[in-house]
Design goal:
The chain is α+β, with helices and mostly antiparallel strands and 258 residues long. Helix content is 28%, strand content 24%. The strands form 2 sheets. It has a 5-stranded mixed β-sheet. Strands 3, 4, 7, 8 and 9 form a 5-stranded antiparallel β-sheet that branches. Helix 1 packs antiparallel against helix 3. The radius of gyration is 18 Å and the shape is globular. The N and C termini lie close together (9 Å).
Length: 258
């Protein structure tokens, strides 16, 4: 636990301290070689300590209904601005599909109705943002592990890569589109869900409708919103910056455990 507190303080403190400077300020920090070395050490220490000392299925703290935050600010994008997303939103996401492909035996495309038929899990957890704020919400969704088992992972599969509908930067090569990744240990954690409800209601657009990832032992930027596709891969080769995520390609840690 000592490692987590130290890491959280280091990460949140470094980012929150520069919050007033906005994205450019954060980028300046993570591009600083000295700061980056310290963060890399904390990242390695946290991941190794958690993987060695904490049982794989140990749950993140869960809370009661009375603990739910009265306000829960959206993290990241509050609404994708593409025409394709606007069309899906106009039809209540009736035409939206989640594609699962890559290193799987049986690629699938699932509607929101398909996902809601799967066994679900509801959990009240705390969201910790790297910008320094936290909020507690109730999330309901399909557990990712059993879903991945149902499509048959190939032996080489090591990572689940989540592609999203929101674009944080306008780029010609697509590198500005949000994406994230986790390994199979976190993919099969019982609290890792594809959430379609928040606080008992269908997910609002600001919080990632129609589907977002909840991976409760990681910082907020790992909880990818506006999910469109999950690709199972053996490495991050060919993924833009090669670090496994939009923010990771810009200097943030990949594991981001708390």
């Amino acid at each position: 636990m000592t490692f987590s507190i130290t890491r959280r303080g280091l990460l949140i403190g470094s980012a929150a301290g520069l919050g007033a400077f906005g994205l450019t300020g954060c980028d300046d920090v993570v591009q600083n070689s000295n700061v980056q070395s310290v963060l890399d050490m904390a990242e390695t220490l946290t991941m190794k300590s958690q993987r060695l000392l904490v049982p794989r299925d140990k749950l993140a703290p869960e809370y009661s209904e009375a603990d739910i935050s009265p306000t829960f600010r959206p993290n990241g994008t509050s609404q994708p601005d593409s025409e394709a997303y606007a069309q899906m939103m106009a039809t209540g996401f009736a035409d939206w599909r989640l594609k699962i492909d890559g290193l799987v035996e049986r690629p699938v495309e699932l509607s929101l109705a398909d996902l809601k038929k799967l066994p679900s899990r509801t959990q009240i957890t705390r969201h910790d943002c790297v910008e320094g704020w936290s909020a507690i919400g109730k999330w309901t969704g399909a557990q990712l592990g059993p879903l991945l088992q149902s499509v048959g992972l190939k032996p080489a599969a090591r990572y689940a890569v989540f592609y999203c509908a929101d674009q944080l930067e306008l780029t010609l090569d697509g590198s500005g589109t949000y994406y994230e990744s986790i390994d199979l240990i976190d993919a099969f954690h019982p609290q890792t869900i594809l959430a379609y409800q928040m606080n008992g209601k269908d997910l609002e657009v600001a919080h990632g409708a129609p589907l977002r990832l909840r991976v409760e032992r990681q910082l907020g930027y790992k909880h990818a919103k506006y999910l469109m596709r999950i690709e199972m891969k053996d490495s991050f080769a060919g993924l833009w910056g090669g670090k496994g995520g939009f923010w990771e390609d810009r200097g943030y840690e990949w594991y981001a455990g708390i």
